[in-house]
Specification:
Blueprint: H1 14-56, E1 60-64, E2 70-77, E3 80-85, H2 88-98, E4 103-108, E5 111-116, H3 118-131, E6 135-137, E7 144-146, E8 150-156, E9 159-164, H4 175-184, H5 189-192
Antiparallel strand pairs: 1-2, 2-9, 3-8, 4-5, 6-7
Length: about 200
């Protein structure tokens, strides 16, 4: 008769272990399919939405199920532009000539490092970003400087954000829930994820 070792926990039910790892394996395979399909769908949607925006200025588009039920809307988030230093030497030379107290020179063995006080650089760049031009207006003298070595460049690309509909008295299901129901009813599989669509029934 085999004696139980009291120091070891009891082994789990082999069937429960198999069910758990099978569920993980199946969901992992399905997740890969969904990720790939979502990446392709997002790429296509982003391309078409940008083309639509450039052509007619549309910034919001509804997402609807095949029966026309609205489940979400996609809104365009405009990109941003900011002042950026593109030539460190030219920018540092301008600071040296106009604001010498903000110009830093460090003598290190075998070389000399030249830089601009970070706080000053941040302030100047922030003001140019707000103005939308590579110019800095001196608050003390009123002089407007054309700042070399700085350009206004895109700092964040335009993007698109999905907002799902909320439940209402007339339609208590949210957009996500409506999508889930349509999927369960077989209204989306062949259209959205053909790889996971159920097989067609055999001909009678």
């Amino acid at each position: 008769m085999t004696e139980q070792n009291p120091s070891k926990p009891p082994a789990p039910d082999p069937a429960a272990v198999r069910d758990a790892v099978t569920r993980q394996a199946v969901l992992g395979a399905l997740l890969d399919q969904v990720k790939d399909a979502y990446r392709d769908a997002k790429r296509d949607a982003d391309t078409l939405l940008e083309q639509q925006y450039k052509a007619v200025g549309t910034t919001k588009t509804d997402a609807a199920l095949p029966d026309g039920t609205k489940v979400a809307s996609v809104s365009r988030q405009g990109g941003e532009r900011a002042a950026q230093v593109v030539d460190e030497d030219a920018f540092a030379a301008w600071v040296r000539d106009n604001y010498p107290s903000e110009h830093v020179v460090k003598v290190i063995p075998a070389r000399v490092e030249v830089s601009v006080q970070p706080a000053f650089a941040s302030r100047v760049l922030a003001e140019m970003t707000a103005a939308g031009v590579a110019q800095y207006a001196d608050q003390n003298t009123g002089e407007v400087h054309d700042v070399p070595g700085v350009e206004i460049r895109p700092s964040r690309a335009a993007s698109h954000r999905i907002t799902y509909t909320r439940g209402t008295k007339a339609q208590p299901l949210t957009g996500r829930e409506l999508v889930a129901r349509a999927w369960r009813e077989g209204a989306l599989a062949a259209h959205v994820l053909p790889a996971l669509a159920p097989a067609a029934p055999p001909a009678a």
